[in-house]
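Dear all,

This email documents one entry for the complex benchmark we are building for the journal club exercise. For each entry we list the sequence lines for every component of the assembly. Then comes the predicted three-dimensional structure of the complex as a token string, followed by one or two observations. Please use this as the template for your own entries, and keep the labels exactly as they appear.
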Amino acid sequence: MAQLEHFSYDNKIVRSFALATILWGVVGMTVGLWIAFALIFPDMNLDTPWMTFGRIRPLHTNAAIFAFVGNGIFMGVYYSLQRLLKTRMFSDFLSKLHFWGWQLIIVAAALTLPLGKMGAHEYAELEWPIDIAIAVVWVVFGINMFGTILKRREQHLYVAIWFYIATWVTVTMLHIGNNLELPVSLWKSYPVFAGVQDALVQWWYGHNAVAFFLTTPYLGLMYYFLPKAANRPVFSYRLSIVHFWALIFIYIWAGPHHLLYTSLPDWAQSLGTVFSVMLIAPSWGGMLNGLLTLRGAWDRVRQDPILKFMVVAVTAYGMSTFEGPMLSIKSVNAISHFTDWTIGHVHIGTLGWNGFLTFGILYWLIPRLYNTKLHSVSLANAHFWIGTLGILFYAIPLYGAGWTQALMWKQFNPDGTLVYPNFLETVTQILPMYAMRAFGGTLYLTGVLIMVYNLVKTMGAGAFIGDEEAEAPALQPHVAHGKEYWHKWIERKPVQMLIVSLIVVLIGGIVEIAPMLLVEDNVPKIESVKPYTPLELAGRDIYIREGCLACHSQMIRPFRSETERYGEYSKSGEYIYDRPFLWGSKRTGPDLHRVGGKYNHAWHYNHMMDPTSTSSQSIMPRYSWLHENILDASDIPAKIRVLQKLHTPYPKGYDKIALKDLEKQAKKIAGELREQLGEDLDDPNLEKREIIALIAYLQRLGTDLSK
Amino acid sequence: MPLSPIYNDWERTFPSETVGAGVQPLPRHNNELMFKFLLQGEDINWMAVFGLITFVLLFIVIVLVAFFRDSAFMNKMARMPLEEDDAQTAHVDQNHPE
């Protein structure tokens, strides 16, 4: 028997991440609730650009995913890793660097997104300096995690740690792959890929952000904290092995299901569908493994709010991982895509799975860190029921809204015309459901605030144990007894585990990306499709800055209901100069791919000033600052140069004369606008306003085919 | 230095032959423009087949590994989260509702 060694666990870093989880959870959910109400009361943008839906929505998603869930992951990993490996973290300094670096990134995101300094890749909107900071901090986390694993006192790695390793290596790969971009200035960059290629890379990332940030690390936490809370070993360790390998292999393939019926190659869409449907098996294997861990302990679920939270979390995981594959079936996706059904689906996952598992862990963890008991079990139970009702009030109305939208969009009269040709009719119809969703969000946030009170009182009543004393035998050299399976070998080889995990996730990535590179030279060029003029380019970047793609798609799918409403379906060759692609994923407003030439300049001018002036009952906010801001075109030459490097065929030396072209086009549009609006328009600087650039871009959209 | 193009004379700056040089321009309204048909002649189906076969092989190996492992080791691993020595806070469990 080896001699016992005495050491201590670092609880300070766990507490720091726990407090950050609570803080950013409240912030992220409050922002989400704000924009939920803003969809009913557009005036809630307060006539300021910084509070507008398009800019605040990415703030909500980034805060919820990377601030709330991200800190929750680190909280759980730092607690469980030390105990499963029977050692202190590798470096207290790296732990602190990781913590403060991550919080600084969150603050940077909270400042830059409302300022409109963002890209257009969903869940990856942050600009390149912050992307680099994320990479650095993520590597710091990796070094600290692997350093801890290497100095462990436990020979074999528990399954939770496999999930942590797979998470780390896959997120590294995804973050780098989706953020390959060339900087124009400190807060502006263009992605390396364009159009269809950009879309494929983005949704390879976007889907796997769900898979490897919201799912695999939380499965690791489930495998640790659920047995702890239930005081039962995991139901089947054998099943957990199958769960792990099957899940990480399959998940990486599923990205194309976000692009069904778009311009993506048909075979890639089918592959995404097949693997998405297959994903049910490992997902439900994991869910059942979690639920069955409670065998013999179900009586405790009645009284213990921690177990209640965990049971609902695992159930929500099962529901969303059943629904996801169903939504990936093409005939279902034809109805669900671009509707609120998707929003309801993802919130079952985030509110139920991520939120409730985090709350359960916090209720379990904080009393332990403070060496006391929970302040109020009754309040925790109240939180559970209010939160559960909140999820139901959130999701069910959005399912109704999604089905309503889809049915109204696709309904035809006997004579072949659309029953609801005015898109706005389909919006006003679902406003009551949006109101119910906002009520559900209010309930959910109320529950969280109750938790904050309960945990603060718990902390106040206890005494924090920063360095928790522990003892364990020193790590003994492995002695093989007879034949050893390779998996038993790999369970005590973290580096090999990392390499094999990387190979497994790379298979899917390569098979999806290699054809994309083949496609690079084969996107059918359409002779009439030309690069954007400098003014259109400036307008396009305003479109990105204002987050217009949060509500408007630019992808007309080849359905009669869409071509009848919007015009000719979208062709891949039309997007070859689109950096980034702006297909969007949700239609709160109509698709804009063929909006060019549909209305005159005056309509756009008035509509952006006050959307209700042209579309009564519109819920789009006012963008009046576009009519006041002078367009800053000083970076246009740099943008042209960067796009030239990315093979956009601007002529050599064009960067030097681009501004002149910009001014000429602006004067032309301003002149036409003055003719259309007459005396109503009295602005001597009209041609210099941002609205002119935006009008130029909108009038260009989708017109190349008809030239 | 090219002539300065103007917004409504974009064709002068980007004459058709400079766009997609070396690639036969396709007609504007043609189903061949659908990206879904793009790689039909490229024999890339082996990639999808490779993916599925790889998964099936991995799955079979993992199932065999998982279900032919000795039970004692499996039970030991399954109990690992419950065998920690956090003596200082172990009593907190007693404070949880039972």
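Observations: Confidence is low (pLDDT under 50) at residues 1-8, 15-34 of chain B. Chain B touches chain A through 68 residues (CB under 8 Å).
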